[in-house]
Amino acid sequence: MTRPDGPSGRVLRVVAGTYIVEDDDGSLLESVLAGRLKQGPRDRVVAGDRVVVERPADGGARIIERLPRRSRLVRRAGGGRGEQVIAANLDRLAAVFAVARPRPDLSMLDRLLVLAELSGLASLVVANKMDLADRAADPEDPLAPFDAVRRAGYRVFPTSVRTGAGVGELAGELVGRVTVLAGPSGTGKSSLLNALVPDAGRRVAEVSERTGRGRHTTVNATLVPLEGGGYLGDTPGLQVAGLPDTPPGAVARAFPELRDPAESCRFSDCRHRSEPDCAVLEAVAAGEVPRSRYESYLRLLREAEEAAVPGGRG
Length: 314
Fold this sequence. Notes:
Shape: globular
Number of strands: 13
Largest sheet: 6 strands, mixed
Strand order of the largest sheet: 10-9-8-11-13-12
Strand content: 25-35%
Helix content: 25-40%
Order of helices and strands: EEEEEEEEHEHEHEHHEEHHHH
Mean pLDDT: 87
Number of helices: 9
Low-confidence stretches: 1-5, 202-218
Number of domains: 3
CATH superfamily of the largest domain: P-loop containing nucleotide triphosphate hydrolases
CATH topology of the largest domain: Rossmann fold
CATH architecture of the largest domain: 3-Layer(aba) Sandwich
Radius of gyration: 21 Å
């Protein structure tokens, strides 16, 4: 005999086949997939998914249905072909980079922002470790490396977990939304998560203890509920993020500053390399589009083109 509960909540974490679901009253359910769901791809159910859980009278819980997703964060699957869903039903990606130690990897920043654009997500940028501003590439203006993405329309939030500067402003921006943090190692993502959600470490540890599987290193996202509503999560799997299956012509549209000039190119299928009367090339030459962002576009365009060729990426 089962007790039907209807749509019962949101998946917070997936660890070794165990799904931690927060039901609608805030309780945590340790669940497994029903047999028919196990026949699908490995990302059939991921963090952020809304699911229906069946709870037998003798205990335990089974996810019997995944509800439709309103958004999904995807990357290229391992092996080079197909897509992997990292998390679902998100509002935004917050790209976290340090101003120093390590200095910001702007190529990776551009990649994460493009990945979010291709996934239909909004983005913001966190310039963390502002307490190390005197060791930045430009101590007079430690945010200078982020000028290009600011010009593209992305908001940049300077923060320091050590001093607390900017953390409150960022926290206010996150309430009521589902946001995931992404960025390279060493930028302070974990410290920032714990500063924004003071008991985040305890909650994640609790989930690990409930699964009985220890502290696994995982590429899966983890979501933590925020006080005041919304969720904040970490996405370690995005430290290496290949573009999902993407038509080469869609890459330029994932760069906000290229959209308007691209409308004025002579050819509708212009790739903005060396074509005549290319308005994007003119904008780059005039300094209206930062060259660093244009170079990132060319790298990601090549990646999309190689992936589109059968056997082009293994």
